[in-house]
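Tutorial, part two.
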Amino acid sequence: MRRRVAIVTDSTASVPLDVADRLGISIVQLELTVGDEQNDERRVLHPQMAEAMRNKVAVATSPPPPPAFYWNYADAAASGVEAIISIHISEGMSQTCQSARIAAAEIGVPVYVVDARLTGLSLGFPVIAAAEAAAAGATPHGVMNVLDHRLRSTTQLLYVDTLEYLQRSGRIGRAQAWVGEALSIKPVLIMKDGVIDQLHKAIGPERALRKAVATAMERAGQGPVDVGVEHFEAADRAKQVLDALCSQLPQVRRVTLEETSAIIGAHTGPGALGIAVSPASF
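Running the prediction step on this input gives:
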């Protein structure tokens, strides 16, 4: 069946590479600077970055340059698709969508740049759903309907082991960070309106993670759902959280356990977890 729509996303979506290859999803890399060295984020090893962050080496993130999008779009257009749907990290966190729009203006087929208002696997699951629809031969309008439903129904929760890195990156005030560390208060955060917001607070990581799991269960509903946990240097804890979710949710469809994007890790720090629940019914 001829594919009428090409799907493009960015590396913060944490789409597993085998899934991207199978569904023809193009992934544009954000860039990460650690000390004086700049690379596509896929080239930055998590243990090295975590060590640099603990040693207070400067870490900075930047969106892909427009040419990185242009060549992906040009390849898709050359394949004969009717449209390109390019789905990216929240504009409240990155200028990735702006770079995509600059490139889209140079392409001869329609390019729809979508600010997902999410990131991580909560971006990845809607991207995968859109790509599955495209692979089945859906029209651009049909793919956009699937994508819109998934983006609206998906929840992204975040646990951080320390507030220090969110404070460094300007995501939390210095006073809040100090109080949180002093009292061992661990926040459960949520992506809301495209930015990180506080949802719950708990004393100690175990209580915070229990609150996160309970919230994820509530948001997942009773129907089929895609569930994922991603982590930055916290593999054992991530697996425990995923196991807890899968043992309690009635209809788990897709299960994903991934290392988080290094870009996300740069803002959340070692020990962080992201939890994504994406109801699959439409």
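The first helix runs from residue 17 to 23. In part three we will examine how such features are distributed along the chain.
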